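SAMPLE LOG
Freezer: B-3
Tube label: C17
Construct: single chain, 172 aa
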Amino acid sequence: MIGLIAVGLALLSAIVTFLVLANLTPILPTDGVVKALLWGNACTVLFLIAVIAGELWRVFQARRHGRAGSRLHIRIVTLFSVIAAAPAIFMAVVASITVDRGFDRLFSRQTQSLIDNAAIVAEAYLGEHLQNVRADTIATAIELACPLVTYDDRIVRFASRHGRQYRFAVGA
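STRUCTURE (predicted):
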C-alpha cells in the first residue's frame, strides 16, 4: 500500500510541476515557486527510493534467511527492473540525440549566414539613418543661421541709405 502512495505522490508532483512550468495554471513560475516544486519533486523521489530500498532489504533478508522462493523472487525483481529501466534508458538516449541534432540545426551554416546577413542589413540601416540625421541637423543649422544674416544685411542697408554710422558687428 505504501508503494502505491509513493507512486501516486510522484505522479501528482510531476503533473503539478509540468502544469506550473508550462504556464497552464494561474500560479506563475517564479523563482520561489520553481524552488518549491523542485524540493517537492526531490522529496517524492527520495520517498520512492526509500520504499524501493525497503522492499529490496526485505527481499535480501528473505534470501539470507533461506526462505523458500527467495532466489526466484530476486531473479524476478532483477528481470522486472531491467525490463522497466530499458525503455527509460532508450528514451533518454533518443531524446538526447534528438535535442543535440536540433541544436546543431540551430547553429548550422544557413542559420549563421542568416544572422550575418541580418547584422549587415542592420548596420546599413543604422548608417543610412545616421546620414539622414546628419543632413537634417545641417539643414536645421542653415535655417537657423538665415534670419541672422538677413537681419544683419538689413541693418547694413538701413545704415547705408540714411548715411548714419552704427556700431555693430556683422555676423556676431
